[in-house]
Amino acid sequence: MIRNAHIKKFLVNCCFPLLSALNKTVKKDKNVIFIYCANNRLADNSYVLYKYLMDNGYDAKYKIVVGGAENEVPDADRASFIGRKKCIMQYMKSGHVFYSQGKIPIKPSKNQCVINMWHGTPLKKIAKLSNLNNGEEFFFTYLCASSEMIKHIMAKAFGCPEENVFINGEPKSDLLFQQKAERKRKLIVWTPTFRQSEFLGYNNSSNTDLLPLFSNEQWDSLNNKLTDLDLDMIVKLHAGQDLHGFYFKEFSNLKIYSDKAFAGDGLELWSLLSQSDALMTDYSSVYLNYLLVNRPICFVVPDMDEYAESRGFVFDDPIKYMPGKIVKDADSFFEFLEDFRNGHDDFEEQRVQVNDVINYYKDGNCCRRVLERSGIVL
Hints:
Strand 9 and strand 10 form a beta hairpin. Helix content is 31%, strand content 17%. The chain has 12 helices and 15 strands. The longest helix has 22 residues.
Protein backbone atom coordinates (compact mmCIF):
# COMPACT_ATOMS: atom_id res chain seq x y z
CA MET A 1 0.00 0.00 0.00
CA ILE A 2 2.89 2.41 0.69
CA ARG A 3 4.12 1.76 -2.83
CA ASN A 4 0.65 2.48 -4.16
CA ALA A 5 0.56 5.72 -2.16
CA HIS A 6 3.73 6.87 -3.93
CA ILE A 7 2.22 5.98 -7.30
CA LYS A 8 -0.92 7.95 -6.44
CA LYS A 9 1.17 10.96 -5.41
CA PHE A 10 3.08 10.79 -8.71
CA LEU A 11 -0.14 10.66 -10.74
CA VAL A 12 -1.74 13.50 -8.78
CA ASN A 13 1.27 15.78 -9.02
CA CYS A 14 2.53 14.98 -12.51
CA CYS A 15 -0.25 13.61 -14.72
CA PHE A 16 -3.56 15.05 -13.60
CA PRO A 17 -2.57 18.74 -14.00
CA LEU A 18 -3.05 18.20 -17.72
CA LEU A 19 -6.62 17.07 -17.07
CA SER A 20 -7.19 20.10 -14.84
CA ALA A 21 -6.21 22.31 -17.78
CA LEU A 22 -8.54 20.35 -20.07
CA ASN A 23 -11.38 20.65 -17.56
CA LYS A 24 -11.40 24.43 -18.02
CA THR A 25 -12.41 23.98 -21.66
CA VAL A 26 -15.26 21.49 -21.22
CA LYS A 27 -18.81 22.88 -21.09
CA LYS A 28 -20.64 22.14 -17.83
CA ASP A 29 -24.26 21.06 -17.51
CA LYS A 30 -25.80 22.81 -14.49
CA ASN A 31 -28.64 20.30 -14.48
CA VAL A 32 -26.33 17.37 -13.74
CA ILE A 33 -25.42 16.26 -10.21
CA PHE A 34 -22.48 13.83 -10.16
CA ILE A 35 -21.77 11.79 -7.01
CA TYR A 36 -18.36 10.14 -7.16
CA CYS A 37 -17.61 6.95 -5.17
CA ALA A 38 -13.93 6.15 -4.71
CA ASN A 39 -14.21 2.77 -2.95
CA ASN A 40 -16.69 1.01 -5.26
CA ARG A 41 -19.58 1.76 -2.91
CA LEU A 42 -22.12 4.52 -2.59
CA ALA A 43 -21.73 5.00 1.14
CA ASP A 44 -21.31 7.43 4.01
CA ASN A 45 -22.16 11.08 3.28
CA SER A 46 -22.45 10.36 -0.44
CA TYR A 47 -25.13 7.73 0.14
CA VAL A 48 -27.08 9.94 2.52
CA LEU A 49 -26.98 12.83 0.06
CA TYR A 50 -28.12 10.54 -2.77
CA LYS A 51 -30.99 9.26 -0.61
CA TYR A 52 -31.99 12.83 0.26
CA LEU A 53 -32.06 13.78 -3.42
CA MET A 54 -34.31 10.84 -4.23
CA ASP A 55 -36.59 11.18 -1.23
CA ASN A 56 -37.22 14.83 -2.05
CA GLY A 57 -37.69 14.46 -5.81
CA TYR A 58 -34.63 16.34 -7.05
CA ASP A 59 -34.39 13.85 -9.92
CA ALA A 60 -37.43 15.55 -11.48
CA LYS A 61 -35.33 18.66 -12.12
CA TYR A 62 -31.75 17.35 -12.21
CA LYS A 63 -30.05 14.37 -13.80
CA ILE A 64 -28.35 12.44 -11.01
CA VAL A 65 -25.28 10.41 -11.97
CA VAL A 66 -23.43 8.07 -9.59
CA GLY A 67 -19.93 7.02 -10.58
CA GLY A 68 -17.95 4.01 -9.41
CA ALA A 69 -20.56 2.41 -7.14
CA GLU A 70 -21.02 -1.36 -7.36
CA ASN A 71 -23.36 -1.89 -4.40
CA GLU A 72 -27.15 -2.05 -4.65
CA VAL A 73 -28.94 1.16 -3.69
CA PRO A 74 -32.61 2.16 -3.55
CA ASP A 75 -34.27 4.04 -6.43
CA ALA A 76 -31.46 3.07 -8.80
CA ASP A 77 -33.86 3.26 -11.74
CA ARG A 78 -34.21 7.02 -11.18
CA ALA A 79 -30.47 7.76 -11.50
CA SER A 80 -27.69 6.92 -13.94
CA PHE A 81 -24.88 4.67 -12.75
CA ILE A 82 -21.56 4.64 -14.58
CA GLY A 83 -18.35 2.65 -14.21
CA ARG A 84 -15.04 3.99 -12.98
CA LYS A 85 -13.60 4.43 -16.49
CA LYS A 86 -16.27 7.01 -17.34
CA CYS A 87 -15.92 9.04 -14.13
CA ILE A 88 -13.28 11.51 -15.33
CA MET A 89 -15.28 12.57 -18.37
CA GLN A 90 -18.48 12.74 -16.31
CA TYR A 91 -16.70 14.92 -13.78
CA MET A 92 -15.67 17.32 -16.52
CA LYS A 93 -19.20 17.62 -17.91
CA SER A 94 -21.05 18.01 -14.59
CA GLY A 95 -22.01 21.35 -13.09
CA HIS A 96 -22.26 19.88 -9.57
CA VAL A 97 -19.93 17.24 -8.12
CA PHE A 98 -19.99 15.70 -4.63
CA TYR A 99 -17.76 13.14 -2.95
CA SER A 100 -16.86 12.03 0.56
CA GLN A 101 -14.06 9.46 0.12
CA GLY A 102 -11.11 9.53 -2.22
CA LYS A 103 -11.09 12.15 -4.95
CA ILE A 104 -10.77 12.82 -8.66
CA PRO A 105 -7.59 14.92 -8.66
CA ILE A 106 -8.78 17.47 -11.20
CA LYS A 107 -9.16 21.14 -10.29
CA PRO A 108 -12.74 22.46 -10.68
CA SER A 109 -13.41 25.03 -13.37
CA LYS A 110 -14.99 28.42 -12.63
CA ASN A 111 -18.30 27.16 -13.99
CA GLN A 112 -18.38 24.10 -11.77
CA CYS A 113 -18.97 23.47 -8.06
CA VAL A 114 -17.15 20.50 -6.53
CA ILE A 115 -17.84 19.78 -2.86
CA ASN A 116 -15.75 17.46 -0.70
CA MET A 117 -18.08 16.41 2.13
CA TRP A 118 -15.34 14.23 3.64
CA HIS A 119 -16.32 11.32 5.89
CA GLY A 120 -15.70 12.40 9.45
CA THR A 121 -14.90 15.35 11.66
CA PRO A 122 -11.33 14.50 12.67
CA LEU A 123 -9.97 13.56 16.06
CA LYS A 124 -7.09 11.57 14.55
CA LYS A 125 -4.79 13.20 12.02
CA ILE A 126 -5.94 13.06 8.39
CA ALA A 127 -4.69 13.99 4.91
CA LYS A 128 -1.67 16.34 5.02
CA LEU A 129 -1.61 16.22 8.83
CA SER A 130 -1.07 12.44 8.83
CA ASN A 131 2.10 10.47 8.18
CA LEU A 132 0.60 8.98 4.99
CA ASN A 133 0.54 11.98 2.69
CA ASN A 134 -0.83 11.37 -0.80
CA GLY A 135 0.27 14.77 -2.08
CA GLU A 136 -2.08 17.52 -3.25
CA GLU A 137 -5.57 17.38 -1.69
CA PHE A 138 -7.10 20.68 -2.87
CA PHE A 139 -9.35 19.51 -5.70
CA PHE A 140 -12.65 21.07 -4.70
CA THR A 141 -14.54 24.32 -4.66
CA TYR A 142 -15.67 23.78 -1.08
CA LEU A 143 -14.79 21.48 1.79
CA CYS A 144 -17.26 20.86 4.62
CA ALA A 145 -16.38 21.50 8.26
CA SER A 146 -18.69 21.20 11.24
CA SER A 147 -17.66 24.37 13.11
CA GLU A 148 -15.31 27.36 13.08
CA MET A 149 -12.69 25.46 15.09
CA ILE A 150 -12.86 22.45 12.76
CA LYS A 151 -12.70 24.80 9.76
CA HIS A 152 -9.13 25.80 10.67
CA ILE A 153 -8.09 22.14 11.06
CA MET A 154 -9.64 21.06 7.75
CA ALA A 155 -7.98 23.92 5.85
CA LYS A 156 -4.58 22.79 7.13
CA ALA A 157 -5.31 19.11 6.47
CA PHE A 158 -6.32 19.72 2.86
CA GLY A 159 -3.95 22.57 2.07
CA CYS A 160 -6.61 25.05 1.04
CA PRO A 161 -7.54 28.63 1.94
CA GLU A 162 -10.14 28.93 4.69
CA GLU A 163 -12.53 30.65 2.29
CA ASN A 164 -12.85 27.30 0.51
CA VAL A 165 -14.10 25.65 3.71
CA PHE A 166 -17.73 26.23 4.59
CA ILE A 167 -19.36 25.40 7.88
CA ASN A 168 -21.95 22.66 7.64
CA GLY A 169 -22.38 19.40 9.48
CA GLU A 170 -22.06 16.09 7.70
CA PRO A 171 -25.13 14.98 5.71
CA LYS A 172 -25.13 11.63 7.52
CA SER A 173 -25.67 13.40 10.84
CA ASP A 174 -29.17 14.34 9.62
CA LEU A 175 -30.17 10.71 10.17
CA LEU A 176 -29.50 11.01 13.89
CA PHE A 177 -32.63 13.14 14.19
CA GLN A 178 -34.97 10.29 13.23
CA GLN A 179 -37.62 9.43 15.79
CA LYS A 180 -36.41 6.84 18.27
CA ALA A 181 -38.54 3.72 18.59
CA GLU A 182 -39.24 1.84 21.79
CA ARG A 183 -37.04 -1.21 22.44
CA LYS A 184 -37.34 -4.10 24.86
CA ARG A 185 -33.67 -3.73 25.85
CA LYS A 186 -31.32 -0.78 25.74
CA LEU A 187 -28.96 -0.84 22.76
CA ILE A 188 -25.26 0.04 22.73
CA VAL A 189 -23.48 0.45 19.40
CA TRP A 190 -19.71 -0.07 19.40
CA THR A 191 -17.70 1.34 16.46
CA PRO A 192 -13.97 0.63 16.86
CA THR A 193 -11.83 2.41 14.30
CA PHE A 194 -9.27 0.50 12.23
CA ARG A 195 -5.84 -0.08 13.70
CA GLN A 196 -4.32 -2.29 11.02
CA SER A 197 -5.27 -1.70 7.38
CA GLU A 198 -3.33 -3.02 4.40
CA PHE A 199 -5.89 -1.30 2.15
CA LEU A 200 -5.28 2.14 3.67
CA GLY A 201 -1.60 1.62 4.45
CA TYR A 202 -1.82 2.08 8.22
CA ASN A 203 -0.62 0.10 11.24
CA ASN A 204 -1.41 2.31 14.21
CA SER A 205 -1.31 -0.14 17.11
CA SER A 206 0.21 -3.39 18.31
CA ASN A 207 -3.27 -4.30 19.60
CA THR A 208 -4.54 -6.74 16.98
CA ASP A 209 -7.82 -7.71 18.67
CA LEU A 210 -10.78 -6.71 16.52
CA LEU A 211 -12.53 -5.70 19.73
CA PRO A 212 -9.93 -3.92 21.87
CA LEU A 213 -9.71 -5.60 25.32
CA PHE A 214 -11.41 -8.78 24.06
CA SER A 215 -9.83 -11.57 22.05
CA ASN A 216 -12.10 -13.73 19.89
CA GLU A 217 -12.15 -16.31 22.66
CA GLN A 218 -13.51 -13.73 25.12
CA TRP A 219 -16.54 -12.71 23.09
CA ASP A 220 -18.64 -15.27 25.01
CA SER A 221 -17.79 -13.62 28.32
CA LEU A 222 -18.75 -10.22 26.91
CA ASN A 223 -22.08 -11.63 25.77
CA ASN A 224 -22.65 -13.17 29.19
CA LYS A 225 -22.14 -9.79 30.86
CA LEU A 226 -24.56 -8.13 28.44
CA THR A 227 -27.10 -10.87 29.16
CA ASP A 228 -26.75 -10.38 32.92
CA LEU A 229 -27.37 -6.64 32.50
CA ASP A 230 -30.19 -7.15 29.98
CA LEU A 231 -28.42 -5.06 27.32
CA ASP A 232 -27.99 -5.48 23.57
CA MET A 233 -24.77 -4.57 21.75
CA ILE A 234 -24.06 -4.27 18.04
CA VAL A 235 -20.42 -3.96 16.97
CA LYS A 236 -19.76 -2.51 13.53
CA LEU A 237 -16.12 -3.00 12.47
CA HIS A 238 -14.46 -0.34 10.34
CA ALA A 239 -14.49 -0.85 6.57
CA GLY A 240 -10.71 -0.45 6.45
CA GLN A 241 -9.87 -2.86 9.27
CA ASP A 242 -7.94 -6.02 8.37
CA LEU A 243 -10.13 -9.01 9.21
CA HIS A 244 -7.53 -11.75 9.52
CA GLY A 245 -8.95 -14.42 11.81
CA PHE A 246 -12.40 -12.84 11.96
CA TYR A 247 -15.34 -15.18 12.20
CA PHE A 248 -19.00 -14.51 12.82
CA LYS A 249 -20.79 -16.23 15.66
CA GLU A 250 -24.34 -15.72 16.86
CA PHE A 251 -24.74 -14.50 20.41
CA SER A 252 -27.90 -13.77 22.33
CA ASN A 253 -27.12 -10.12 23.15
CA LEU A 254 -24.07 -9.40 20.99
CA LYS A 255 -23.72 -9.06 17.23
CA ILE A 256 -20.35 -8.37 15.59
CA TYR A 257 -20.46 -7.24 11.98
CA SER A 258 -17.80 -6.74 9.36
CA ASP A 259 -18.57 -3.77 7.13
CA LYS A 260 -19.65 -6.09 4.31
CA ALA A 261 -21.93 -8.19 6.54
CA PHE A 262 -23.43 -5.05 8.05
CA ALA A 263 -24.46 -3.77 4.62
CA GLY A 264 -25.55 -7.28 3.62
CA ASP A 265 -28.05 -7.30 6.47
CA GLY A 266 -29.52 -4.05 5.18
CA LEU A 267 -28.20 -2.00 8.08
CA GLU A 268 -27.17 1.65 7.85
CA LEU A 269 -24.94 2.96 10.63
CA TRP A 270 -26.46 6.39 11.16
CA SER A 271 -30.03 5.13 11.22
CA LEU A 272 -28.90 2.49 13.69
CA LEU A 273 -27.19 5.11 15.85
CA SER A 274 -30.41 7.14 15.92
CA GLN A 275 -32.06 4.15 17.60
CA SER A 276 -29.22 3.45 20.03
CA ASP A 277 -29.05 4.43 23.69
CA ALA A 278 -25.27 4.75 23.97
CA LEU A 279 -22.11 4.65 21.86
CA MET A 280 -18.82 2.90 22.51
CA THR A 281 -15.94 3.94 20.29
CA ASP A 282 -12.31 5.12 20.44
CA TYR A 283 -10.69 7.53 17.97
CA SER A 284 -13.47 7.28 15.41
CA SER A 285 -15.10 10.51 14.26
CA VAL A 286 -18.51 8.88 14.82
CA TYR A 287 -18.75 10.19 18.36
CA LEU A 288 -18.34 13.83 17.30
CA ASN A 289 -21.59 13.53 15.32
CA TYR A 290 -23.22 11.47 18.06
CA LEU A 291 -22.81 14.43 20.41
CA LEU A 292 -25.82 15.91 18.61
CA VAL A 293 -28.16 13.50 20.43
CA ASN A 294 -26.42 13.88 23.82
CA ARG A 295 -26.44 10.21 24.82
CA PRO A 296 -23.73 8.41 26.83
CA ILE A 297 -20.39 7.74 25.12
CA CYS A 298 -17.61 5.44 26.25
CA PHE A 299 -14.08 5.52 24.83
CA VAL A 300 -12.32 2.14 24.66
CA VAL A 301 -8.70 3.22 24.26
CA PRO A 302 -6.20 0.76 25.79
CA ASP A 303 -3.63 1.79 23.16
CA MET A 304 -4.11 5.56 23.29
CA ASP A 305 -0.46 6.46 23.97
CA GLU A 306 0.73 4.18 21.17
CA TYR A 307 -1.92 5.48 18.79
CA ALA A 308 -0.95 9.07 19.57
CA GLU A 309 2.64 8.26 18.69
CA SER A 310 1.91 6.37 15.46
CA ARG A 311 -1.11 8.23 14.02
CA GLY A 312 -1.48 11.33 16.18
CA PHE A 313 -4.40 13.62 17.01
CA VAL A 314 -5.47 17.00 15.68
CA PHE A 315 -5.77 18.32 19.25
CA ASP A 316 -2.85 18.73 21.65
CA ASP A 317 -5.10 17.40 24.44
CA PRO A 318 -7.59 14.99 22.82
CA ILE A 319 -9.06 13.94 26.19
CA LYS A 320 -10.49 17.45 26.50
CA TYR A 321 -12.71 16.67 23.51
CA MET A 322 -13.70 13.15 24.59
CA PRO A 323 -16.69 13.65 26.92
CA GLY A 324 -17.19 10.18 28.29
CA LYS A 325 -15.65 7.42 30.37
CA ILE A 326 -12.08 6.59 29.29
CA VAL A 327 -11.66 2.82 29.36
CA LYS A 328 -8.30 1.06 29.18
CA ASP A 329 -9.06 -2.31 30.77
CA ALA A 330 -11.87 -4.85 30.93
CA ASP A 331 -12.88 -3.93 34.49
CA SER A 332 -13.52 -0.31 33.46
CA PHE A 333 -15.38 -1.53 30.39
CA PHE A 334 -17.77 -3.58 32.49
CA GLU A 335 -18.04 -0.70 34.96
CA PHE A 336 -19.36 1.51 32.17
CA LEU A 337 -21.93 -1.12 31.21
CA GLU A 338 -23.18 -1.30 34.79
CA ASP A 339 -23.31 2.49 35.18
CA PHE A 340 -25.17 2.79 31.90
CA ARG A 341 -27.66 0.08 32.88
CA ASN A 342 -28.32 1.91 36.16
CA GLY A 343 -28.78 5.30 34.48
CA HIS A 344 -25.59 6.77 35.95
CA ASP A 345 -24.16 9.46 33.62
CA ASP A 346 -21.49 11.95 34.75
CA PHE A 347 -20.78 13.46 31.33
CA GLU A 348 -24.02 15.03 30.12
CA GLU A 349 -22.90 18.62 30.73
CA GLN A 350 -19.46 18.00 29.20
CA ARG A 351 -21.05 16.52 26.07
CA VAL A 352 -23.08 19.71 25.62
CA GLN A 353 -19.95 21.85 25.98
CA VAL A 354 -17.93 19.84 23.45
CA ASN A 355 -20.88 19.67 21.07
CA ASP A 356 -21.08 23.47 21.05
CA VAL A 357 -17.51 23.82 19.76
CA ILE A 358 -17.62 20.84 17.37
CA ASN A 359 -21.09 21.13 15.79
CA TYR A 360 -22.33 24.58 14.82
CA TYR A 361 -25.55 23.28 13.29
CA LYS A 362 -27.83 21.07 15.36
CA ASP A 363 -30.93 21.00 13.17
CA GLY A 364 -30.65 17.96 10.87
CA ASN A 365 -30.57 20.06 7.67
CA CYS A 366 -27.02 19.43 6.45
CA CYS A 367 -28.11 17.77 3.19
CA ARG A 368 -30.19 20.76 2.21
CA ARG A 369 -27.40 23.23 3.02
CA VAL A 370 -24.71 21.39 1.06
CA LEU A 371 -26.95 21.32 -2.00
CA GLU A 372 -27.77 25.00 -1.66
CA ARG A 373 -24.06 25.81 -1.45
CA SER A 374 -23.75 24.37 -4.97
CA GLY A 375 -26.79 26.30 -6.15
CA ILE A 376 -29.07 23.24 -6.24
CA VAL A 377 -32.66 24.11 -5.35
CA LEU A 378 -36.08 22.75 -6.19
